[in-house]
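Hi C.,

You asked whether I'd gotten around to modeling the 293-residue construct. I have! Everything is below, sequence then structure, no commentary in between.
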Amino acid sequence: MHLLYDQPLFRPPSEADNLIIQATLGCSFNQCSFCAMYRSKHYVERPLADVFADIRTVAAYLPDAQRVFLADGDALALPTEHLLAILRELAATFPRLTRVSCYATPGNLQRKSADELALLREHKLTLLYFGIESGSDLILKKITKGATQQRMAEVLHKAHTSGMKVSATVILGLGGTQHSDEHIAGTIALLNSAPVTYLSTLQLFLDESITEEFQRKHGEPFEMPDDLAILKEQERLISGINPPQPVIFRSNHASNALALAGNLPKDKDKLLLQLREAMAGHRPLRPYYMRGL
């Protein structure tokens, strides 16, 4: 199989073994100060003919594909009829298809009605990857997320009501040493009010190409937390989460100093014990050379 992907290409870690089809190129927002993923690309909605050609190419080699991730960062930004056409083509081409997924921004979700989301779900777009990053309005403004805690809560409720599963991410360290408390308190408040299916934490890593912009938009000197401070943030976050529905929790992304896995709130005590063992030096951390995005 040989698809000529428009590089760079990104996908969530859980999509590593699944088929990737580029429905869009780049990110239509592309302003988050911590993210360098699509800075080298202009946002483009790929013509249906090109997307269908990729689907046919892949089908010759992987006719039994069951899961598809629609790249790049903004497939949900597509007009609903355009996206439905892709979903119908995938279903017609791959008879064993069980799930389609894509990234979703707060703006994407806000612009889709609940009925549109339900219709997309009926056509097997059932999982959305959503970057919460922080629930603090202060931090969200500093990172140019383009959303408030209230707006994110509203769109997460909309996705849930429409039957969508949401895999959400939070970035530890995003408030620096100065605003760690605000970052974690706001994030706890959001997660305790808005339903998500999966929750993952990442550890802040700034690409050299955006470090200056991140510092400038932060608006004050930014001090990167060390591993112990990050583990303390994780401890406060897990201690404070009492979600409206059970959440499958992971911190196994390669950026993390400590990999954790469990269900919240059921495994809260187990996860906190592992964190405290790591903070006391009794559980090893991932070496720096093995970390990355």
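If it helps when you're writing up: The mean pLDDT is 95.

Thanks,
B.
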